[in-house]
Amino acid sequence: MNIHQFSAGFQLGDAISQEMLEMKRLLAKEGYTGKIYAENVYSNDRKYAEKISKVNIKPQDVIVYHHSIHSKVLDFLLQFPNKKILIYHNVTPENFFEPYDLRFSYLLRRGREDLEIIRDHFQHSFAVSSFNLAELIQIGFKHVRLLPLHLNFQKWDHNHIESKHKTFVFPSFLFVGRIAPNKCQDDLIRFARSWKSIYGNQFSLRMLGFCNPDQQSYLDELNFMITQFDLQNEVKIIPYVDEAMLKKIYLESNLFLSMSEHEGFCVPLLEAMHFQLPVVAYAAGAVPETLGNSGILFHSKDFNQLVREIDKIFKNNDYRNSIIYHQNLHLDTYLKSTSILPLLEVIKS
């Protein structure tokens, strides 16, 4: 029996691709073989995943489909009578992308419609967060279960410097995530303008992430804002980088700030915890669930007020260390909660 995993796209570094790789590793430890397939696979990533045109599904094989957007993959999979298992990562609401990329907006709308097809044709369903699980239940999924994301932080060695022992010359803010309208990097830039107007230019903000070429207009808008707000020296947008450079950037930063307004989970929140960065995030989507009782959530984008609240983290070491302490507890609890066993149960059923 092979357990083959499928998704619309594969790009090393994004949350779904990381999950597929980790699930493949964990399944291999249980003696299961299988490959990863996607409609869109970047040439640099083809040692990890293959195009769906190359798949050879045998009658006893199990299909695991990671859903987040409409693609040809679902229609391709429906032609096979094999056992099918959904892993739901959420579909971003289409309205975020309508001003920038109508085709992508259409694919998101179709992706949400696809859920009803999946509901009627898949034997088992999992969601990677309770937020996502609630959506499936509302649509009418039966017996859907929670399957927390399997995070592999062993890819970074443990020799990173604990934040409380760092010497900060000035605040270095970081956000990691796709350059996309739902991630609201434009609000991060507005925050930077407020910070500069109150505390001056001794700070940096880096936004690290891949931008879909079809959404270049959103990236152009961000770059225009940086120029118009006179933030060229303080704010940098960094394209996707490899794991070594990502680790370096995490280590050089001293606070993770998220303005995202839709997340089905948000892996970088936990990555930031791993690197001992206080996390401050807008309370939207699954973000409160992912943070648990740790980090700092805010419910209003009052940038001047937020600037002053965040400044307390830098000025009060006890406050900062308390945030990091509770984040460490939460991260440890989360990592211990993940298991491949629920998936193995339905594979064997």
UniProtKB/TrEMBL annotation:
Species for this entry: Leptospira bouyouniensis
GO BP, sorted A to Z: lipopolysaccharide biosynthetic process
Gene3D superfamilies found in the cross-reference section: Glycogen Phosphorylase B
Domain Glycosyl transferase family: 172-325
Molecular-function GO term, any one: glycosyltransferase activity
Keyword field: Transferase
Name this polypeptide is given: Glycosyltransferase
Coiled coil: none
Residues annotated as signal peptide: none
InterPro entries xref list: Glyco_trans_1
Keyword Metal-binding included in the entry's annotation: no
